[in-house]
Design goal:
335 residues; alpha+beta; 3 domains; five-stranded mixed beta sheet; 37% helix; flat
Amino acid sequence: MFSNDIGIDLGTANTLIYKRGKGIIMREPSVISINTETGKTVAVGTAAKSMLGRTPKEIMTKRPLIDGVIADFDAAAKMMREFVKMSKNGGFLTKTRMVVCYPAGVSEVEKMAIEDAANDSGAKKVYMIPEPFASAVGANLPVFDACGSMIVDIGGGTAEVAVTSLGGIVCSCSLRCAGDAMDNGIVNYVRKKYNVLIGERTAEKVKIEIGSAYEGYAKAETTEARGRDLINGLPAVINITAEDVRQALLPSLEKISDAVHSTLEETPPELAGDIIMNGITLSGGGALIPGIDKYLSERLGVKVVKAVDPLDCVAVGAGKMFDFLDTIDDITVNY
């Protein structure tokens, strides 16, 4: 009666918490603001993200995760502690058990850093599972059956590709090229073409508004962006086209496509046959890019479908793993 089982998707861009029996209860940016003089946490999540680039010198606002791994352990532990506190409603008697996800390609040291941060946040017990496996569970793929399923989870810092069968990962690829790399691609493209420097938040906004992976799939043809003119140093406003954004995204999309292709080459023939029949499932924020399923399908020659709720797959899968706790230690990742 005092249990508090939560699944955590600790992402580079956003952190989601799934509470057993309630579903997704928290969705916040993975950002923290800390007072460098006192060491106290000023804000986390949405409140902290709104402070980016707007704080006095004694307030440091940062993203403690880079490319899916912890870059600042203390900041990550403080951020997780605040998020867990926000998710609790059972008072001091509540015993929190966590299932936390980690990118399949991280080292043991990086994996331990994530686990230690979860323990430092006040968890009574922490279970660790590979992120693509959790995503496959959240997308309702038959991961425990004797058949092959392929998941491509495109997050903020990493793109995870994995083939699952019989409760394990048969082969996988973790690519540190995902949403953040796409935003940087837009920044660089606009700088080269228009001689205007825009910020990463502006690039993300442009990607959401008119980004697409396939011609004719953009939600709108143009959008306005504000930045700084690199020639005269003054503020500038430009109109960016959907074709500009598509060209800026292509290098990242090609890398993701190549990662899926190399994983398919490593897949055993029987499982490859299952994937040809059932298709590839896309999850993560990158799955929301219009036309990305058609782009990958044409390049790979395999049917590609988007998960029902791509943003929630990892967190939902982590929460569902409480029903299979005895199998968590048996989940293996083969390269």
